[in-house]
Design a protein that fits this description.
The chain is globular, with a radius of gyration of 20 Å. 12% of the residues lie in helices and 35% in strands. Strands 1, 2, 3, 4, 5, 6 and 7 form a seven-stranded antiparallel β-sheet that branches. It has one domain. The longest helix is centred in the last third of the chain and has 13 residues.
Amino acid sequence: MPERHRNAPPEESLYEPIEWTASEPDYDDYGRLVAVDTDNSNNTSTHRTYDCCHLLTEVDENAITTTYADYNVLWQPRTVIKEGVDENGAYLEQALKQGLARLRR
């Protein structure tokens, strides 16, 4: 078997590609995007809502809602709030489950 170069890509990928399809987007009376749903080949989906110019919310495959607000002049959100996630990025639900497990001991 020939020696492979260190940075050569693997011959077989360990990851299965995820294909996705977007539903027919919803538009307001002025033709601005309001909402779009994305269905993935791994049986997950994402729902996004928009105002006239910005992403407002996103509900991911775990039903966790992320809210985007206070956009700057570069259209970047200054505030991003992910429901169920603390400021350290940990899922509060998981922390609660671990806390309950400790209490039950």
